[in-house]
Specification:
By secondary structure, the chain is an all-alpha fold. The protein contains six helices and no strands.
Length: about 190
C-alpha cells in the first residue's frame, strides 16, 4: 500500500511538472512575440526619426521659415530618440515616458506641416512632397505596429493572468506588459472654428 501511494504521488508530481513545463513554454512563446512586435514598433518610430533631418533640411531652404518651429522639431526628435526601451522594460511608467516623447515629436511635426501651408513655393517642391508622403506612410505604419504590439501584449497578459497560469507565471517571473494608450484628451473631438 505504501508503494502505491508513492507511485500515485510521483505520477501527480510528474503530471504537474509536465503541465508546468507546457505552460512555461507557452509563456516564453508569447513573451517572444511581444518582444518581436515591440521591435517592429521601435523600427517604425526610428524610420520617422530618420526622416526628420531630411524634412528639416528641406524646410530650412525656405529663407524666412519660422526657426522656432524647426527648433521644436529638432528638440522633440532628440528627446524621442533618447528614450530607448527594451521589451523587458515596458512598465507603465516607462511606456508613459516613451509615449510622451513620441507625442511631442508628432505634435512638432504636425505644427511644422501646418506652418508649411503658408509657403506655397516650399509645398510645390518635389522633394518636400515626397518627404511629406513618406512621413504620412510612416505615421500609418506606426499606428499599425502599435496596434499589433497591443494585440500581442494583451494576449500575453491574458495568458499569464488566467488561472492556473497566473500561479506558474508568478513563480517563473513573467510579469504584465504595459500597453500603448491614447494620448490624454484624445477622446474629445477637435474643436473646429471658422
Amino acid at each position: 500500500m505504501k508503494n502505491l501511494w508513492l507511485i500515485v504521488v510521483l505520477v501527480i508530481f510528474a503530471l504537474l511538472f509536465f503541465v508546468g513545463c507546457g505552460k512555461y513554454n507557452t509563456f516564453v512563446t508569447k513573451d517572444e512575440n511581444v518582444n518581436q512586435t515591440w521591435a517592429k514598433v521601435e523600427t517604425a518610430y526610428q524610420s520617422r526619426s530618420d526622416l526628420v533631418p531630411n524634412l528639416v533640411a528641406t524646410v530650412k531652404g525656405a529663407a524666412d521659415f519660422e526657426r522656432g518651429t524647426l527648433t521644436d522639431v529638432i528638440e522633440a526628435r532628440s528627446q524621442a530618440t533618447s528614450i530607448q526601451l527594451t521589451a523587458d522594460e515596458l512598465t507603465p511608467e516607462n511606456m508613459a515616458k516613451f509615449q510622451e516623447a513620441q507625442s511631442k515629436l508628432s505634435g512638432a511635426l504636425s505644427r511644422l506641416l501646418v506652418s508649411v501651408e503658408r509657403y506655397p513655393e516650399l509645398k510645390a517642391t518635389a522633394q518636400f512632397g515626397e518627404l511629406q508622403s513618406q512621413l504620412e506612410g510612416i505615421e500609418n505604419r506606426i499606428r499599425v505596429e502599435r496596434n499589433r504590439f497591443n494585440d500581442s501584449a494583451t494576449d500575453y497578459n491574458t495568458t499569464i493572468r488566467t488561472f492556473p497560469n497566473s500561479f506558474i507565471a508568478s513563480i517563473t517571473g513573467f510579469d504584465r506588459r504595459a500597453l500603448f494608450e491614447s494620448d490624454p484628451g484624445a477622446q474629445n473631438a477637435p474643436k473646429v472654428e471658422f
